[in-house]
Fold this sequence. Notes:
Blueprint: E1 2-7, H1 12-28, E2 32-35, E3 47-52, H2 54-67, E4 70-75, H3 90-99, E5 103-107, E6 110-114, E7 117-121, E8 124-128, E9 140-146, E10 149-156, E11 158-162, H4 170-173, E12 185-191, E13 201-204, E14 209-213, E15 221-224, E16 227-231, E17 237-242, E18 247-251, H5 257-264
Amino acid sequence: MNAGIYFNKNYVSENTKNIKLIESTLENNGISVKLVDVYSDLDGLDILFVLGGDGTILTIAAECAARGITILGINYGHLGFLAEFEPDRIEDALLLVCGGNYSVQKRSMLKISFDGKDYYALNDMVIQRNTGGAHFSNTVSLHAEIDGTTVDNFSSDGIIISTPTGSTAYSLAAGGSVLSPDISAFILTPVCPHSLHSRPVVFDDSSVVKVRAIGKRERPVLIVDGKVVGEIMSGETVTVSKAERNAEFITQDKKNFFNKLLIKLNIWSK
């Protein structure tokens, strides 16, 4: 087995001790390990330890999915929905990996096609109003259809198309429903729509969604897992479908998604 370590450089002091622990433990159990700095370092790996928050995992998840690498997340961020372990439980994580006593959960991803290129998202794709420069706009006008049937024309700050994994992120903040990770569905959530009837739409993940910019002077921004990838001209279409690849995460055998949801979102009263 070949393992890698990828960490958020903002937590160097916290990570130094834990990186050494991971390296020594894996090597003592006959598992080769290396630090990952660039995507090419991922080649040949089986498992990647990711030390950071959800944002850190999102920066590397699509590249891991393309190579069939399983992710083990150790949370140094705020919420940490994607990370299975907190820093004080790294030794438990190492016991699981070295003993092979873990489960692998597959998470569906989005494939976003635009301007001749394909992008992949574990969380979501967002089309939103342009907030800078000469193309600033107060709202954007978007036409959305699912499997060739019109869903709505949206005048809004934008729309989000999210996986179940991403349903607890921006989509949730915008009023979208929470989807459990094992459900075969995606969700389209309008952001601040100027309408009394526009609501989030949950649909089968085998469907194909097309979103077309219909505002003449607007240039909405296309964002994939938090990264801006381009601007959309009037008449241009973004196509979204289920990716042929999955992101894979190491989990413990006993896991309760809704229990984790309540704890992470601090819903329980004390």
